[in-house]
Amino acid sequence: MPASRKQASRAPVTHSSERLLRALVAVSLALAPATLPGLATAQGIDQELKDLVPDAAVADPEGWAKSTPPAGSSPSSSAGVQPPPGQPGELDPGSPLANLPGLSVAWPDADPDKPEGATTSPALASLPPDPDVAQALADEQARPQLEVVPAGEEIRVAPHLTLVFPANLATFPEREAFLDRFRALSTLRTLASDNDTIAQIAARARVDKDLLDRLLRVYGYYDAIVLQTVGGSAADGATSKRSEDGIAVRFDVAPGDRFRFGTIDLGNLAAAGPDAPALRESVGIKPGDPLDNDRIVAGRDKLDVDLGETGYAFAEIGAPELLVDHKRLEGDLAIPVEPRGKYNFGHIVSQNPRFLSSHHLEDIARFEPGDLYRRTGQEDLKRAILATGLVSSVTVTPREVAPPPAPGQPGEVVLDVAVIPGPLRTVAGLAGYESGEGLRLEASWEHRNFFPSEGMLRVRGVAGTNEQLLGTTVRWNNFHGRDQVFTLDLTGNTVDRESYNARTVGFSATFEKLTTLTFQKPWVWSLGLEVLATAERESVVAGQAVPRTTYYIAALPARGAFDYSDNLLDPTRGWRTALRVSPEYSKEQGGPTVTYARVQADASAYQPVTGGVVLAERVRVGSIQGAGLESIAPSRRFYAGGGGSVRGFGYQAIGPRDSAGDPSGGRSLVEFSLEARVDTGLLGGAVQLVPFIDAGTVSESATPTLDGMRYGAGLGLRYKTDFGPLRLDIGTPLNRRAGDGRITVSVALGQAF
Q1: Closest C-alpha to 224, from 157, 175, 156, 153
Q2: To pair with 498 at 20 to 30 A between CA atoms, which of 31, 346, 433, 471?
Q3: Pairing of strands 544-545, 260-265
Q4: Omega before 453 cis (within 30°)?
Q5: Of all helices (H) and strands (E), which one includes residue 523?
């Protein structure tokens, strides 16, 4: 049995595999007793492995291994190893397989008459050609083929990029606009020189070729041909030169025929009734016009605007579709349009009436109920609500309340307004300094909707070198109309200046029509009422305080202004004028009662001179008519000097002086200012240098005069911010008097004028 098992195990093994196995086993047996004698003794050798080893290998392993013939030798030289009885020594791959036990299905026999590899599947009948595909192929073959792009005009777009167009400009009149677009979008133009490899240029050339194809279609050239050449190797038969700056790319552009608009389908626009013809004209495209995709976009947008401005609150316009017919050289345009009825404005409905009432929102709106619906009116209302500063977001939605009775006749929509309130309370601080005025610190607290709607309450205080103040202000913004403000102000303050000392309690009410940063209006005006009681004295003489005089004053100030400048806080061109007139009644305690009028006129102009330089000029003239100087409270007189007047001089330091050498004020005023605002380019253009020269005088006469004119000059610095420029001015008097300082400094927000 062991011998039988040994022969049976070896029978399926080829002679080369058998020899390799014998060699490995022999070497293992030869080394095992020497290296692991204990292990061999302890575990023994597997009996199956023993049965596989020939007796010659066991007796003399090394000799047996040497006598084994190498691979590829004749099987007959295998050291007498013979196949088992009854089994073939070599297997023929082409011999038939024996029947498998239990398999009764006969093996398929190959047809001896068929060629090798032939199948028995029946031949499939050919399908008839698709008529659409056949027609498309026929049309393509019938089209005139451009064998070679004719010689044209070369335009070098970049050092390594050239475009070639037909020499006759009439064949492509849009060439300049086409080139501008291509330059802005080309990827080859932005390729850095250090990335000048054939792979990168070839990839970008493919992108630019697609770009050229798309741009040609934009202008209606749907049969255009663009031939591309990269690196001097002509593509599609073109030729090119290698650029001195690297690998050259050339595009030969043959625009071909320009397509034209065919039919123009505007959907259901006819439902607009009498408005339909005008709305159709607003598209601006007619059949037969040169095809231009820009005109399609512009026409759709114009139609959308005109629908929204002529009462169609719910109009819908779909995406344009263009069907190009190469046989007709035309494109049929379809723009889905649904007017969905015409409407008038109804009322405005607030979703949060305790915060912003519907009545207040109607005051803000620039339309009245019954006006034709306009989308711009709806958007303007939304911007106005955001401009209040009371909300963080707002939505305005039209809602139908009365359908249109007939096409072209308006129904009615109301506007539903939903807001999300924003932060309403603010604590603020302000610090400033000016020569002659000293340090000034101001703090305030406010609630911007303390008295809905838009009724602000502010409490503020001032602590300064020469001024202390406590005040309360109530201010209603958009008071019965857009940008109209009604203000009530109650203050108590003390002022200690070289010209006078005053303790004042005052009340004022003002109604004004304002301009704003978001909507700068040319005309503004204000009317007011002012009532105050003030105890004042002019100066201190020989160390002794002059007794105070109490005045009771009532005034009706009015102001009108026209602003033709380009910016409210930082104008660069234009001009402004303003006139202020204040009739006043003054009762001196223990003295006479007088009436007089304070009149002040201002004008300024702004002119750009060269790049980055703006020349600004200002003039101010004032007069008090109707009372003598001694009858007018010191705080109501004219003074000059300081950062907003004549820089280089102290605050209110210009004009007549009393016996103590302190300014006493006057009844007339004249001021001039000239400055150049020079952009430096520093910090991204935020810094300006401003050399200036100012002049001014104050007279005791009611008639303005140039006598006693004082001049100041200096240099200013401006730092521009989103809320206006920060201003620093350093000036010096050119004709100072005794007691005038040599240098003045002022810091404030905004330009000097």
Answers
A1: 175
A2: 471
A3: unpaired
A4: yes
A5: strand 523-537
CATH of domain 343-421: 3.10.20.310
* Termini Cα distance of the chain: 124
- The C-alpha angle with vertex 746 and arms to 745 and 752, in degrees rounded to 5, equals 130
- Alpha-carbon Rg for the chain in angstroms: 50
pLDDT at 20: 44
**Nearest Cα to Cα of residue 278 among 287, 288, 266:** 266
Taking only the tens place, the pLDDT of each residue in 371-396 is 999 999 999 999 999 999 999 999 99
Strand ranges in 351-483 using DSSP code E only, listed in sequence order: 391-402, 411-421, 425-434, 438-451, 455-464, 467-476
pLDDT, average across residues 162-173 = 89
In angstroms, the CA 465 to CA 497 distance is 9
| H helix runs in 98-197, sequence order | 131-142, 175-185
Give pLDDT tens digits for 689-738: 999 999 999 999 999 999 999 999 999 999 998 878 899 999 999 999 98
- Greatest CA span in the chain, whole angstroms? 156
Write phi, then psi, for 261 (nearest 5 degrees). Answer: -70, 135
Match domain 497-749 to its CATH number in 3.40.50.300, 3.40.1280.10, 3.20.20.140, 2.40.160.50. 2.40.160.50
pLDDT in tens, 187-226: 988 876 555 677 888 889 999 999 999 999 999 999 999 9
Residue range 260-338, CATH number: 3.10.20.310
Calpha distance 237→131 (Å, rounded): 33
CA dihedral 279, 283, 288, 291 (to 10 degrees): -160
